[in-house]
Amino acid sequence: MNKHLPLVLLAGFLLSPVLAQENWQDRLFTPTTFDKIDGLHFIVVCWHHRVLFSERLEPEISSWRVLDDEVAGPHSIDSDGTLFVVDDTGRHSLKVYKRSGDDFERVQTLGPFGKRTHRVRYDAGTKAFYVVSSNSQHITKLVRKGDLLEVAYTKELPFLEGAYTRSMSIIDGEMYFTSGPGHITRVRFDDDSYTPLGTYRVPEEMVSANDVFRTSDGWWYVTSTPQRIVRARTLDDLDDGRFEDVYETLGLSGTPYYLAEFDGRVFVPQITQYSGVISFVHDEEGAISDVRTHFDFGPPNEQDEERRNYLPR
Q: pLDDT tens-digit profile of 42-81?
């Protein structure tokens, strides 16, 4: 959805464009997560301090419903099918919601857990939620008891070596942390040991990694701050320097963040410098094709910047 600047007509003369100040409620500013969970689309809008949801991929943000607009700098959401958990990053905590008819109700606030709860993932194999705290390199495990969550433990992760850690992913029963420092760490977690099983170097310019993601057809994507996204056939290829930079191929302008795949497409939200969401598919040869723009809000405006300072980040 491209935004065009209005032209001002005065006394028959066409003057220079004037920047439109859209209401922040009708925009996205740093959408860190765009995903489909339990039949609903969700957008986590970090610097607007809110989470939105919709049954359909509505093109107008004003058509989306608000799950919560008092969550401090959130980054992610996940669900076990009953409870929906959002990291309340600026408060080092979590918020827990349950569906109530066509809406949601908040049933719990948990924490604090370390410093800056940054990404929450649900694992069906262990029937537990996990959240990583980026500033303190803690992992917290939570299990469901009835309609509430209980904290099983919070542990430090020494293998991260004190590195700021924005993400962990769960892929084929193993956990992947980015990056601590300068590499992806593959970890066993189902026995609660967090034993490193392998490490894979990321390109030197990508040490501030955001996400590692594997598509259904086996491609590994890594995003990083600022404005970087590469892919490789395997993590060993990435480690050996055999990767493809796909930033320009995807037509991005901001920093790509947490990837998701649903409805046969891979979705990439972009943040910070430029806010929006694109998606793409792989053809039979593995080439990127059919790149689509779903939201395009460009650089932040004054209202966006004011809203960013509303709650701690």
A: 999 999 999 999 999 999 999 999 999 999 999 999 999 9
Extract the tokens encoding 45: 């809008």
Residue 56 contacts by C-beta under 8 Å, 6 or more apart in sequence? Answer: 41
User: CA Rg, the chain, in Å?
Assistant: 20
Nearest to 30 by CA among 280, 257, 205: 257
pTM greater than 0.90: yes
- Nearest CA-CA partner of 133 in 80, 47, 75: 75
